[in-house]
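Entry 14. Ran structure prediction on the chain below.
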Amino acid sequence: MKAYKVEVLVIDFDGLGAKGIISEMENVRYPNDCMFHSVKSIVEKDIGEWNDEHPLNNRATCDTEYRRIFEK
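Output, structure tokens:
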């Protein structure tokens, strides 16, 4: 499974890929157009097989795992 760093963490359950994630994030419409955003960069990493015990799926280990994956 892939995870993407766009200064938010996206777990890609549906296999959207980087372009699909950018499209979904940039094309969401908020009430009254209260926000405009444009993705400037995205980093893709393989996080292995997903399961309920994955460190990114646990509040106690998520931040540490995020740093391990993306700060290499």
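The helical segments are 17-27, 59-70. Will compare against last week's run tomorrow.
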